[in-house]
Amino acid sequence: xxxxxxCRPIGIIHSEHRNxxxxxxxxxxxxxxxxxxxxxxxxxxxxxxxxxFSHILILYYFHKATTQKLLVKPFLENxxxxxxxxxxxxxxxxxxxxxxxxxxxEDNMLFLDNIDILDGTPILDIKPHVSRxxxxxxxxSGWQEKIDDQTAYxxxxxx
Length: 159
Ligand SMILES: C[S@@+](CC[C@H](N)C(=O)[O-])C[C@H]1O[C@@H](n2cnc3c(N)ncnc32)[C@H](O)[C@@H]1O
Hints:
With about 160 residues, the chain is mainly beta. It has two helices and eight strands.
């Protein structure tokens, strides 16, 4: 077992999502779900130059998650998978990551689209989305490949 790690939130998400069961399951299903990341003032300097990026990765704490399981049934399939083969919130450490569109920055406020995150969620970190770092060839998507795009959208949008 590793040592405990203490994390301090750098900000908080303000979104329209208050009901986990009605929140889209990924940003790709959340077009038009706008909101803000409020970054606490003592971290504001770290936002310098972020406005040059159209998309950012937000890492956050699933603060409303109530379970921590190693086998979970994900939202898109009624079959158990190892939690690390899914994006389910009920995971060890309860860490989420979403690639969101950065609409604009005003001081310590980042205005965002495609939000799949509950209102009040603590933000742990922010990184720029850089397409050259994330480009991959011959991608396999495991159990997700059985689910067609239309079904994924219908189940994933959840609104
Ligand atoms: C499947 S997770 C995926 C989130 C992220 N894109 C990821 O891959 O880590 C998305 C779901 O997590 C739930 N959720 C979002 N924010 C949460 C929070 N702060 N606490 C608990 N559950 C949350 C919502 O039900 C949402 O539909």
